[in-house]
Automatic annotation (TrEMBL), chain A:
InterPro entries: DAD/Ost2. Subunit of the oligosaccharyl transferase (OST) complex that catalyzes the initial transfer of a defined glycan (Glc(3)Man(9)GlcNAc(2) in eukaryotes) from the lipid carrier dolichol-pyrophosphate to an asparagine residue within an Asn-X-Ser/Thr consensus motif in nascent polypeptide chains, the first step in protein N-glycosylation. N-glycosylation occurs cotranslationally and the complex associates with the Sec61 complex at the channel-forming translocon complex that mediates protein translocation across the endoplasmic reticulum (ER). All subunits are required for a maximal enzyme activity. Belongs to the DAD/OST2 family. Its main location: endoplasmic reticulum. It comes from Sinocyclocheilus grahami (Dianchi golden-line fish). The keyword Iron-sulfur does not apply. GO terms for cellular component: oligosaccharyltransferase complex. It is a multi-pass membrane protein. PANTHER family: DOLICHYL-DIPHOSPHOOLIGOSACCHARIDE--PROTEIN GLYCOSYLTRANSFERASE SUBUNIT DAD1. The chain crosses the membrane at residues 42-61, 67-85, 105-124. One of its GO terms (biological process) is protein N-linked glycosylation. It comes from the Eukaryota. This is Dolichyl-diphosphooligosaccharide--protein glycosyltransferase subunit DAD1. The keyword Nucleus does not apply.
From TrEMBL, chain B:
It comes from Sinocyclocheilus grahami (Dianchi golden-line fish). It is a multi-pass membrane protein. The keyword Transmembrane helix applies. The chain crosses the membrane at residues 542-563, 575-594, 600-619. The lineage of its organism: Eukaryota, Metazoa, Chordata, Craniata, Vertebrata. Residues 528-626 form the Ribophorin II C-terminal domain. Component of the oligosaccharyltransferase (OST) complex. OST exists in two different complex forms which contain common core subunits RPN1, RPN2, OST48, OST4, DAD1 and TMEM258, either STT3A or STT3B as catalytic subunits, and form-specific accessory subunits. STT3A complex assembly occurs through the formation of 3 subcomplexes. Subcomplex 1 contains RPN1 and TMEM258, subcomplex 2 contains the STT3A-specific subunits STT3A, DC2/OSTC, and KCP2 as well as the core subunit OST4, and subcomplex 3 contains RPN2, DAD1, and OST48. This is Dolichyl-diphosphooligosaccharide--protein glycosyltransferase subunit 2. Residues 375-501 form the Ribophorin II third domain. Pathway: Protein modification; protein glycosylation. Belongs to the SWP1 family.
Length: 125, 642
């Protein structure tokens, strides 16, 4: 028997998730510093590039396979490096990265990218 | 530990001794004849006359024209040369009734040569000449001169000459020291893989050593310190060469052969089978020739078979059976003991003289026989065995009258027995084949007939099973039985019958082509790897645009977020950093289009290090600014809180 103030179990799953999403977006907009938002935009760009490359492969074919691989790996690698940079720059994580300053994180990011580019360009053919 | 060493040494020596050596090389009668021919060549000077005359006398052959030879020697003699006197004296000694006139000067010359200052060869020649000419000599002086010579020159030839010289001296002289030299010399012989024993100086030296050692040993009547195996190894070395380079080499071999057949201590025995060592019913006697090294038969010997056993079972068929001597050949009727066919290991002992060396011989004897085929039954059997088999018996060497038919429902079978003609014992020869020959196409197929446990041979032909061997060609095949073995005297090729085979799925009979191995083969066209199909350019271009589109999105988002370059500090390190970074990206593009990894690494190292230094500077400046900003903000917050 349902009491007046209790909510039933199937009270619209979709609306619960919608509330969750809107709450999340609101939090993101307000509390994330601008620097991190810039990096997030970059991450989205990388993600989309990777997705479109994969789409091409699925639709048209894997020729030439090495080029596809190198492009895809470039996207994946860049995404990972950017995520690392974001983690290291985030002021909320300062306690975990006492020895790594944001500048140092950026320098590491650049160096890792150089290596990644070298490998990708070697493989793209 | 020492006991173990000693024990193992004892066991080893016992093992070595039980494996008595037998000569692997010896002179045959043709070799002896050849040696004689070499020594009988007409001589040109005194030296070759010496070698010929004395060499032939060692072989027991007298020179023809003894008088003429004597004249030749006398006319070529030079009384002022010791060497010439030596040759003349020795040669004349070998000829009967040849006397060399000797003057006092000659004698004095010869006696004067016997001193420490002369070479061993000179001493040997003068002593031999004196002895052959019947002139007196002082043995003790010779001995001391020889001993002095040996101590000065320790080479092998000197000692051999000393031994030869000592054998011409009086028995009262003290020859003990020189006798000991035999043992020392024997130790210097080189053992080649346990078969040969020779001096490194060569065959001639080894042969001269043998004759000198035995001459001296006979002279003093003391057994030379040479073991039986060593004597046999010396025999192998000396008689392994069957044609001789020089007269002196032939002479040394002849004198070694003479001393080995005539001395008082060791006489090597050569045992050889006359012809192949094979016995059969037509030839039941095993014949052996027992000779000394000069191929002279040893009639005083008694030859005995100690044991004769089959190579596989080692059970003795014969034991202690004597050979009988007939015409200088020892023979034994082995077939009398009715041996089964096969190979037998004979152990033969030669007795009769205590001087015999290598008188235990192992021989391999083959006993062959004739084979007979019994109970050859040919039959055609139905596969489903609805009707009984029709068997036809065929007698060797006739052929079956009617041909046999076999098609896919029937099997053709053959059974027979192979027995020894005389004893009736079942035989299993090495090769028993059944050959089917198609007369029209010339094709032949060979099968092996195998015996079962009762030694009955069976052969079955299943037409369906075997059709690949026949290429499914039906027709009349002539059936042959082929049989052979090393111990069979009558190998058999017997056309037993004709068989008509019918195969299912017959292909058109093609004549068998000779294998075209050496004609050019058909050319192989190389197929290059075809390039993969590329999608149409429109599609590729469209997708390229699609992939590049997120970049626009990025720029839009960045503008919306308010990303700016307001913090751009105008310092040289900043400029340098950005330029360097742009250069690195440019280098990546150039790498993609023109360069290889090594060149890129080189450029990257240069640009990278510049960029790194500039970037380091720039980021350090930025860090300083940031920390200063943080500190000031913290200070402001603190102040506002207060």
């Amino acid at each position: 028997m349902l009491l007046p103030f209790q909510r039933g179990p199937f009270r619209g799953r979709t609306s619960v998730s919608l509330t969750l999403i809107s709450r999340f977006v609101e939090e993101y907009r307000s509390s994330t510093p601008n620097k991190l938002k810039v990096i997030d935009a970059y991450l989205l760009y990388i993600l989309l590039t990777g997705v479109f490359q994969f789409l091409y492969c699925v639709l048209v074919g894997t020729f030439p396979f090495n080029s596809f691989l190198s492009g895809f790996i470039a996207c994946v690698g860049s995404f990972i490096l950017a995520v690392c940079l974001r983690i290291q720059i985030n002021p909320q994580n300062k306690r975990d990265f006492l020895t790594v300053s944001p500048e140092r994180a950026f320098a590491d990011f650049l160096f890792a990218h150089t290596v990644l580019h070298l490998v990708v360009v070697n493989f793209v053919g | 530990m020492a006991h173990l060493c000693l024990f193992s040494l004892l066991v080893l020596s016992m093992v070595l001794e039980t494996q008595a050596l037998t000569p692997t090389h010896h002179l045959t009668t043709t070799d002896v004849a050849r040696l004689q021919a070499v020594l009988s060549q007409p001589f040109t000077d005194l030296k070759s006359a010496y070698y010929s005359v004395v060499g032939l006398s060692k072989l027991g052959i007298l020179v023809a024209d003894a008088d003429e030879t004597c004249q030749f020697i006398k006319s070529n003699l030079d009384p002022s040369s010791v060497e010439s006197l030596f040759y003349a004296a020795e040669a004349s000694q070998a000829l009967s009734g040849c006397e060399i006139p000797v003057s006092n000067d000659t004698r004095d010359l010869l006696l004067a040569t016997v001193s420490e200052d002369s070479t061993a060869s000179q001493i040997h020649q003068s002593v031999s000449a004196l002895s052959s000419l019947g002139l007196p000599l002082a043995s003790q002086e010779v001995v001391s001169a020889l001993k002095a010579r040996i101590s000065k020159e320790d080479n092998v030839l000197t000692i051999i000459l000393a031994l030869q010289t000592a054998s011409r001296l009086s028995q009262q002289a003290e020859l003990g020291d020189i006798l000991e030299e035999i043992e020392d010399l024997a130790a210097r012989l080189d053992d080649l893989s346990g078969v040969y024993l020779q001096f490194e100086e060569g065959l001639e030296t080894t042969a001269l050593f043998v004759s000198a050692a035995y001459a001296l040993s006979d002279h003093v009547d003391m057994e030379p310190p040479l073991k039986e195996d060593q004597v046999i190894q010396l025999v192998n070395s000396i008689f392994s060469k069957k044609s001789w380079d020089s007269l002196s080499e032939a002479f040394s071999v002849a004198s070694a052969a003479e001393s080995l057949s005539n001395n008082r201590f060791h006489v090597p025995v050569i045992v050889s089978a006359q012809g192949p060592a094979a016995i059969s019913h037509s030839q039941p006697f095993l014949r052996l020739q027992v000779t000394d090294v000069l191929c002279q038969p040893l009639s005083s010997a008694s030859v005995l078979v100690e044991s004769a056993s089959t190579s596989s079972s080692k059970s003795a068929i014969l034991s202690q059976a004597p050979f009988t001597l007939r015409d200088e050949v020892f023979e034994l009727n082995f077939m009398a003991s009715q041996p089964a066919s096969g190979y037998y290991q004979f152990s033969v002992a030669i007795a009769g003289d205590s001087r015999f060396v290598a008188n235990h011989v192992e021989l391999k004897v083959k006993v062959s026989t004739r084979v007979a085929i019994n109970n050859m039954d040919l039959s055609v059997v139905d596969k489903d065995q609805s009707t009984g088999p029709k068997t036809t018996r065929v007698e060797y060497p006739t052929k079956a009258k009617a041909p046999f038919m076999a098609d896919s429902h029937q099997n053709f079978a053959m059974a027979f027995q192979l027995v020894d003609e005389t004893t009736g014992v079942e035989l299993t020869p090495h090769q028993t084949f059944v050959r089917l020959h198609n007369q029209k196409t010339g094709q032949e197929v060979v099968f092996v007939a195998e015996p079962d446990s009762k030694n009955l041979y069976k052969f079955e032909l299943d037409t369906t099973e075997r059709k690949t061997e026949f290429d499914s060609i039906s027709g009349t095949y002539a059936l042959y039985l082929m049989m052979g073995d090393a111990t069979l005297e009558n190998p058999i090729l017997w056309n037993v019958a004709d068989v008509v085979l019918k195969f299912l799925d017959e292909e058109a009979p093609s004549t068998i082509q000779a294998k075209t191995l050496y004609t050019p083969k058909p050319e192989i066209q190389h197929l290059f790897r075809e390039p993969e199909k590329k999608p149409p350019t429109v599609v590729s271009n469209a997708f390229t645009a699609l992939v590049l589109s997120p970049f626009l999105l990025l720029l839009i988002l960045w503008v919306k977020l308010g990303a700016n370059i307001s913090n751009f500090t105008l310092s040289p390190s900043t400029f340098l950093f950005h330029i360097g970074h742009a250069a690195m990206l440019g280098l990546m593009y150039v790498y993609w289009t023109h360069l290889n990894m090594f060149q890129t690494m080189k450029y990257l190292a240069i640009i990278g290090s510049l960029t790194f230094l500039a970037g380091n500077r720039m980021l350090a400046q930025k860090a300083v600014k940031r920390i200063a900003a943080e500190q000031s903000s913290r200070l402001a917050k603190y102040r506002s809180l207060r």
